[in-house]
Fold this protein.
Amino acid sequence: MKLADYYLNEDYPGVIFECLGHPIETTIDHHGDVIREEENDLQAVIRMVGDNAEFVYFIEDLVEYSDHVCSCGQLGCGHV
Ligand SMILES: [Zn+2]
């Protein structure tokens, strides 16, 4: 699934999320060594614009956003 640069998330109304890519799922063997790393292309890692907290969501639960993005991350903010 193709990713957009920004998403809206109805769990956090009024906040614009920046998309950081797909989450990586790691498989380890019984020695604790990584034997496989695979992108989960049904999900996206998103972060509130202007914040550090990252969330993982299914892409189908997010709404693509392509309008103005203010540095404060608030939807519809009038700052340029
Ligand atoms: Zn603003």
User: Anything to note?
Assistant: The pocket of zinc ion is lined by residues 70, 72, 74, 77, 79 (CB under 6 Å). The beta strands are 6-8, 16-21, 24-28, 34-39, 43-48, 54-58, 63-65. The longest strand covers residues 16-21. The chain has one domain: 6-65.
